[in-house]
Fold each of these.
Amino acid sequence: MSRHHLPKHARMDSITSLHRCRTPPLLHLMSLTSRRESSRILWGGLEWASHMNIPAVILPSPTDDDSDEDEDMFDAAPCKPTSVANKAASRDYAQLVSAISTSSICTTSHVQLWIRVPLSMQAMQAFQLLLDRCDHSPSIGCMLHMDRNIEPGALPSMASALHAFLGAGNVKAVSWDTGNFLRNKKGFPTLSKSYQHIFSMVYGRLGRTVRTLVEGQLDARSDHGGASSRLHHLQYLRHLRSRAPLPSKLDSEEAVLETPYLDSLQSPLQPLGDHLEYQTYETFEKDPVKYSNYGEAIELALLDGLARGAYPAIKSVFTSLGRLKETSESLRERLEEASCHRDLGAIAEIDVKEVTILVVGAGRGPLVREAIAAVDRVTSISLLGTEGNVALHAKIIAIEKNPSAMLYLQSLRETEPSWNGAYDPGVPDLANGAREIVPGSSRISVIGCDMREATSHPILRKMIENQQARGDIVVSELLGSFGDNELSPECLDGVQKCGVLKDTCVSIPQSYTAFLAPVSSARLISEAKAQGFHPLNHCDGPGGSMVGVQRALETPYVVRCHAASQTHDEQACWTYTHPHVSKNDADTGKSSAEAAADVHNDRCAHLSFSSDPTNGSRNGCGYGAVNGDIVRAVEGSDIGATLTIHGLLGTFHSVLYESKRTKRTSTISIAPHSFSTGMFSWFPLYFPLKEVLRVPPASTINCSIWRKSDDSRVWYEWCAEVEKSGFILSTCSIHNPGGRAYHVKK
């Protein structure tokens, strides 16, 4: 048995060496005559590992070797993978590993069992079968052993197989055998191009959590004996780790922020049933991409509205660019960048048009700030354009139901000049109560109510009664990981039904599409099962009722998937568009509110995922943009390997605003095919499968998902099956029927 004490406080992405050690031949248990004695010695060794607080014990793969020779874990080929994973010896081995993983050694002392898996498709398939037999115990992991040469022609097939295994194999460590290293002209170790690609692939995916070991016999050309001679190999691996693009993937600010969330299952938010915490708002507001794209969308909508004359003129103002420059940051920047000289002191008549913007679910005001900035930008564009005499003034209605967030919004309203028409809130109004309108400025009204109950607030009631005062643009950030899982359709339909929007109102977002794809991840299914042992009510403590495995596996989870592999390209489930427009408007003359009253938001989708020779390698873990380098590397792959599917991965793509006039579109997306790089406000939604699906080559995965609702709840139901040549090979039951395990409160 081979053991190594990994430092508790080492960085998760650190590359560390392993010193040479030699141990008795304890793990060829399946081939020894005295199994009882061998088992006693093994358990004794494990007890010692637990006593010494050793975090991980390395075990071999099932073997065919009946030899009694000592096993040296640093030999070039310390063990052979079983040739037939389904034979009795492998089942005996799985029984032993399962017994250890459920003992106090693993459950109480938290000793991990790392099974050494050579880099071959046969060995990787055998380990996945062992994990299945051990019910995907979280105590069992894989130490991937790079122990053989890879010919360039075999790289596409190996990369495809490895992509699937990085999810299904629960890889905890990677072992690099010195026998696979080449020598450069100066005699230092290096890796072949094929292995460099494998290194980039493995560490690009798991570099923040995987451990690295260097082992194997030393070349006769080495200058120094002993483990220290492997230092050159270790230094070379660190050099590969420092080469682009790995640092941008593993060491960026975004990567550092994500690290605590990797493979950590989180229950989806209940935004209508619960109030979000201050920290949640603060985390979302750090996203550098989302709000920038929202600002662009609002700007495009305002420009289109000006072009079609959608906003009424309210006043003519006589002023100069010099005066406006003092209050308009956008105008100031554009004047500084302009190549032509302007007479900043010339007085001109400017027609001011008023736009009404509703920000529903305003939170702490990030969308309000984007709307203010967009109005300022559009005004500066207009004033410096060919016409040069049109400006905007915005009435922005910020609606928020969270009382604590309301206090924050009100404090901004009372302290920020940009929220008060560019005037200092501390300066009293004029004697007649009126102030000159500043072109490009905005005035904010903060309203505390449920956005679906606009008729309950006097300001909103007046807007409903006066058609000209209704909303021209409605802006929201109600999207969830699956697009609609935080009830964006119900919320926006509720706003429209109240009649607070004009019939010509524009919604940002305009549409959002839910996507679904199969995912292979031993880590995620293990984490989902572990949720079953958590208290059903956290207030009850350890003595309270448990969640239960069935409920845990019928609940979708938000997760920053990491040790996961999306095995097929995602497919669209359904799309929601806002605001609703009646198909018969021309005939019936229905208003915007009446059109919204005629819709329902239940949906269903039946998707078929055909066999993909590349195992969906381009999609990585299912979170992040499609990897073009992987696409080229796996081109021509035809491995014919069996996949293991542990669940479904839900993502979304949203069109915030599409300008048909300028052909410009602002979008946000976490679907791999259109991923918004740098955005981290949303992680995918993981739908576990109670029954793991094994998918043979040339098989099709059929998935069905339903979005259901009643008067007070919305929930999802889902199932999947494997089909080949018209025959159903395996299936799983429909999950969460009637919302028995999980739902979202309306």
Amino acid sequence: HPPSLSLLSSLVSTARAWPMEFIRKLGSRGRTGLAIVGGLTIAGQYATYKQAQNNKAKASKDRVLQLDLTMQITEAAPSVWDEVVNSQRPPMSLKQVVDAVEWAASDPHVKGIVCTQAGDAPLSMAKMQEIRDAILSFRSDQAEPRRPAVFAADTFGEGGQGTGHYYLATAFDKVYLQPTGLVGLVGIHSEAFFLKKLLAKIGVQPQFLAYFEYKNAANMFTQEGYTKEHKEQVVKAMGSTFGQIVGGIASGRGLDEGKVRGVIDDSPLTAKVALERNLVDGVKYHDEVLEELGVSKDCPVQDLSKYHKEQEKARNKKDNGGQKVAKLLSELRGKPAGEDVVACVVAAGNVVRGRGHKNDMGAARVIEAVRAAVKDDKVKAIVVRVDTRGGSAVASDTIRRELEVARGKGKPVVVSMGTYAASGGYYIATGADRIIAQPGTITGSIGVVLGKFTLSALYEKMGIDVGEIEMGKQASSQSSVHPWSEAQLETARGIGLNFYNDFVGHVAKARNMTKLQVDSMARGRVWTGEQAFDLGLVDSLGGLKDAHRIAADLAPELKGKDKLAPLVIYPKKKTPIQELAHAISGKLDDETPQASLSLAFFEGIFEEFAIVSEVLSAFRALRAEAGSGHAEYRAFGGGGGFGGARSA
């Protein structure tokens, strides 16, 4: 039998640590043997692990789904190795959460949803609104008999901030609170730290240019407190967010907004008082809530992430084994098979040129995904999920242009804004046909900031001497030894102004406005999605599902169809075999491809694994039909592992 699942991550780490010189010295046959052993071992272990999970799920079809907010909810789908390393609490993407809740609405075996949170880890306003929308749809879309969605909290803030989680909870049918818990509906609070005096003490001189007065990204380094413009826009954005929270709670609990504001001023409240003021529906422990939902041996609690995996596999399953192998091989080549789809490209993280690191929005990687979607005839429209505070202006423009090119090739593009789509994020969005944002999204920031830190005084304090040789007046412009000269400062001003004018020009063209109109809402101003909609900077308010529907409606081949074309992540999530190929091929990170093994070779491994998996499934079916009397089979190949199947 293969090694335990806990060895998977260490195996990959070892593979990544192998010197490529050693692999090359193995020769072609040596590398082939090494890859086969590693590939079949991991593939077999992964098959055994997945089968065990499936067997648990099949033991009882009825279940109550649990959304645990201690789980990390990301924009990008977790990789195979993320799931293995975090096997006890694997992360889920926001799309996976929303999909699972949507599927549950039409699944009669789901008897309810319970949301729990045993910590105060915050979710962004936009993410909470995305989940709220999914829960409200679950409540309204399901057929009779209705199945409840319940929020079971230990506390909403332990003596402090619990506003966000309580706002989310009010989208559920019922809200329960532990007897010792509190409702910390205390409102929202913002703090800004200003480091100018500290930097001066240690010998660091910041030098930044902002276009214009509302572009405050560098204020923490250059100011001793809020400027008039900085404070003005923070107050406006917080006012919009606060209003959304009050309105959402009032609607969810059937309360007057004035009463909600009164509760906020009186908070935190004990469980008893919260019940009296109709903020919760009962004071119960978690086990009591589960008992009310009918949780039992015949109707267990199932984690939402496991339910998603189970349903995703069931939806992708093909009846014919040969079709399944063909589909797997097609996926290995990066070409999705099947019906027409809407591609979803996740563009999250700091915007950088090139490929960037794992958590960056590397322009090259986003472009690859967009081009793959454009090239695929089955992709009829593209949704780009943007979640970034900004970054490189050049990289942002590169991505924006690629969206424009995709549209020119007949693929409608819709941008769905996440937590942030500010500065470079909004720049990217101007390349789309439509822009969709949640009311709580932070967007805008149409402006530019550039600058540097001069560390000469710090170097002197530390006893560091620096020698310089310069050839060209601008050669030392990014030096940390001295500030910009007058000539360098003038050049920087010109660059910043040019970037700003380009930005405003793209916004004006995309939003059908004059540059003067854009400037009046730009100059670095930050807006919530709600405010941006009122200003005409976004087309509509909503989440990823809304962007999906709009994108499909923009595609002539999909418009008016009864069934909505599925939203498929691009590039597709790597399978274990692809991850292994990635590691063994020497691609130790996204920027250093050191060697490459033949795709055909790995297709061979994958095909062998797929065929053996089919045989394994057949034997399992035979065992189930034969019953316990066939000891010969159990002794021969009944271990259920990959090795047993090969022996059989």
